[in-house]
Amino acid sequence: MVNKLGQTFEKTEILILIFCIFSVRRNIIPHIVQIAAKEHRTQTSFNRYIPPQLPMSNEAEKVTGIVWDGRKLFYKGVELDFVNIKVAISDFFMWLNQFSNAVLVAHNGKNFDFRVLSTAVYNCNMYDNFTQIVMGFIDSLALFRSNFPKIEKYNQPFLAQHFCKEEYNAHNAVDDVNMLDKILIAANVSKELMLKLCYNSNSHLLQENFIKAKAKNLPSFHPLIASGVMKMTTAENIAGSGLNCAHLKLIYTRKGEDGLIDVLMSKTAFDTEKWTENKQKV
């Protein structure tokens, strides 16, 4: 039985989407240098190269085979056609538009590919279009872990060897896409099985917004946390929702205690007894 999101996809087109992403430093958001995808049933494919926004190290060039000299982009010595990230995403949307109810599949996508894609789409001010075109995400890593618990490893090169008896270039998005498609077929993974792990395409944006709002608003609750009026988890949920302590005081002034409790209960599991005991401290 599929989850609620999966139940809405009676005629879903499953897309295999893998990114080849390079980050010059760990503390900098990865910059997409290639977007590749393949439709699982028809094998229709998409591929675009994007020049990195920051210089690539010699080690990265050696590992990926991609070289950017500031004007030209090369892959293993062959000059490539390329576009900027906004054009690449726009082209990707146009390609996706030929499918209805598109679901993107990527290996370890929940931790990496989908997060980076979501950030890039948001930064290009194209997120509304994206969530209309892409209905959901599926992380094939989670799929294999849950359905093949006795496999020794779950990285894609190992799965390629295990299911397909093949080795491949794991540093090119097209090769990643083609191999993941082969693995899913060889492992006899059905569309229904994949849809059990499908989740909403807006999930990563909501998560990023929550993290940013929490970082901004949480310091205002430190006195309440220190005095025992509010638990850290409660403060984090309220802060992540976009509210700070000044907002709560304003709500209390305008709508009274009941209004404040309504807001708090809508944001988190609020302890009303704790509030009654400590409301004078807020």
Automatic annotation (TrEMBL):
InterPro entries: PML_C, Ribonucl_H, RNaseH-like_sf, RNaseH_sf, TREX1/2. CDD domains: DEDDh. The keyword Magnesium applies. GO terms for cellular component: cytoplasm. Pfam families: PML_C, RNase_T. Residues 19-193 form the Exonuclease domain. One of its GO terms (biological process) is DNA catabolic process. Its cofactor is Mg(2+). One of its GO terms (molecular function) is 3'-5'-DNA exonuclease activity. This is Exonuclease domain-containing protein.
